[in-house]
Each structure stands twice: as C-alpha cells, then as structure tokens.
Write a structure and sequence with these properties.
Elements lengths: L5 H10 L20 H31 L10 E7 L1 E5 L2 E16 L6 E6 L6 E2 L4 E6 L1 H36 L5 H33 L2 E3 L4 E6 L6 E2 L6 E16 L11 E6 L5 E5 L2 E6 L5 E9 L10 E7 L4 E7 L4 E3 L2 E8 L2 E13 L2 E4 L8 E5 L10 E5 L6
Parallel strand pairs: 1-22
Antiparallel strand pairs: 1-21, 2-16, 3-10, 3-15, 4-6, 4-9, 5-8, 6-7, 8-10, 10-14, 11-12, 11-15, 13-14, 16-20, 17-18, 18-19, 19-20
Helix pairs in contact: 3-4
Length: 406
Amino acid sequence: MTKPTLESTARETMFKPSSDSKAKPEVDDTLPKPGPESRKTRVVLLIGVVVVAMGVVALYLLAASRTNHVALSEAPKPVSAVKAQTTTFRQTRNYVGATAAWNVAHVGPQYVSAYVGTVLVRPGTVVKRGQVLATLDCRTASAASREIAARARALSQRQTAAEHESKRLTELQQGGFASENEVEKLGAQAASEAAEVEGLKATLASRSIEVDDCILRAPFDGEVTERFVDPGAYLRPGNPVATVVDRSTVRIVADAPEADFTVVALDTPVAIELESTGAHLTAKVSRRSPATDETTRTVHFEIDVPNADRVLPVGATARLTIEVGKPLPATELPLRAASVRGEKATVFTVVGDVAKRQVLSVLGERGGSLFVEPKLAAGTLVVVEGRALLDEGDKVSAKEMVGASQ
C-alpha cells in the first residue's frame, strides 16, 4: 500500500466538499411519458405529409398528361373553312353621282338696288308660281316711274294738239290762207313730240320693270331650300333672297370615264342606291353628253327619277351600278379566303385532312365575296382562317364556318 504524499493530501483537501455547505438538489433528466395530446399531433402531422405527397403526385401526373409527345410538324393544324358555292357573275360598273332638282332658281333683284322690306318664306316652304317671296323698298323707283308717266301724258297731249293744228293748217293751205313752210314746220314739231312721247313710254316701261323687280315672286311651283337675307338687308342686282327648287322629278347626275362611253348609253338600266334615305331604285339613262370633258376626260350622263311625292332629297349622294356583258359561270368565295394578286387568287382547299394550294383566275368581286373561275366543285372546303400558316400538303383539322360566305 502506497503512502500518501503531501501533495496528494493537499489536493484532496482542496476539492473535498465541506460538510458545512448546503447540498445541491438533484435534477431529473428523464422525459415524461407521451400523453393523448402528443399522439393527436403526431397523427395530424402524418396526415399532412400524406396529403402533400398525394398533391405532388397528382400535379406530376397532370403535367405528364398534357405533355405533347407528337412533333408539331406532324400535328394537324386547326383551320376554319367554308364550302365553295357555284353561281354566276356579271361584270359591273360603279359610279358615284348626286341628286339634282329639275329646276332651280335663286330669286333676287335683277335691276334695282334696295333695302329688303319683307321676307315671307323660310326653308321648307311650299310655294306656287307667282307667289310673293319678298318685297324691296323701292319708293324712289316708284316716284321716278310716276314722274315719267306724267311727262309722257303731257307730251302726248301736246303731240295731239300739234297734230290737230297741223291738220287745220293743211286745210288752210289748200284754200290759200297758209304757207307751205308753216305747215311743214308744224308737222315736224308734231313728229318730234310724238318721238319724244315714244321715248318716254320706253323709259316708263323700263322703270315699270324696275318697280316690278321690287316684288320677288316664285318662278314655278316648288319648295324653298335656302333663305339668305332678313328684312333690313341691302341687296344689289344678282344677290338672291331665297332659293326655290322643283323636285317633282329628280335628276341623278354622274360622270363616267371616257372608256365607258358605250356603257352609259341611252336607256341603259341602272341600279341606284341613295345614301340619304337608303332607297334602292331602278331607272334608265335619260341623257348622255355627246362629248367628253376636256379637263377630266369624263362623260356626263343623267337619270330622271319621278318624285311626285317628294320623298327624294336633292344634293344627296347616289351610288350607281350598271351591269355589262353576259353572266358567266363562277365560284363564289369569301374575299378573306384568298390572296389576290392582279387577276389571280391563291386559295387553300381541304382534301381529306390535307391542305392543297390552288391558283384561280379572278372574275371580279362584289361586297364581301370573290368570284373566281369555276374550277372548284360545289361544296369544296376552302380555308378562311389559318391559311397564312399553311403550306402545300400540311395536315389540317378543318372546322366548317356556317354562313361565312354570305
């Protein structure tokens, strides 16, 4: 047995707990046994993990089902198509004209300048021939006319007295009581006064016209379209007070290119559409100018349309259509189903599930339809939407459009 040394004794004495100090409490490190609440938490967490796992699997399966395993170049291209229709087509010429009144009058003074006294009509007033439209203040002209009339009467009386005196002198000359010179002198005086009377009568007639010009009347039965002045305005010759039109018959006036000189021949039927009322009429060419305009190189022609009930306005736009040539067999397609260049149209038809490109000759177009040579059988599907992405021989999935060709 080894004898303890002094160093080991001192170390033991240093670390040996004192018997006088308090003893520290012991700590229990053991975990408590799980209760009911901890078991519920474990079940909820487990269920959540299962649900998340199932969601991940479902999303994966959904993405996998939407994945396209076929090459895009091999998949049919979706397009919309219509059936081609067999019909006939006739060439037409279209012109833009205007409706005009049969008679138009700008009523105003022609000889006098005066202030407007009254204006008795307004736009829309129906007037009869001779009806007073307006009056002018022509007191000066009336006074001058009365003065001339009085002078004419005085001269006429003097001329009558001179004639009687000349007649008496002629009788005295035959009896030898008057000289021939006196008779000639008195006859010349009578003739001079007669000529002066005639001059005054002519001046009086002119003044009478001026006085009559102060009362403005309707030159024919019609309607007032414009009123230019009100009472108090000063008018000069040529200034109108109102415009009167007669539209019992409406003239449709238009101009055609000189190349269509024979197209607008007399009695040619014309389809007319009026922009103002939407009316559709049919009439014949009533007259055509025998010469072309030197500036525009166009031919003027007119169409008379009866308008006794005055339902057609004047000055309105009229669209004219004239058919020329003979009807030709054709195939009708929607205009947007073809690419047109010059006189050729390129279309895609559907044969089975394959797109075929065809180039056809264009006969013409009308409205939203294109008319081509009748190489397509009736009922052939023609691609309308989606043709810009097609090439010859592409597979397509066509959906027919109902009514698209109208």
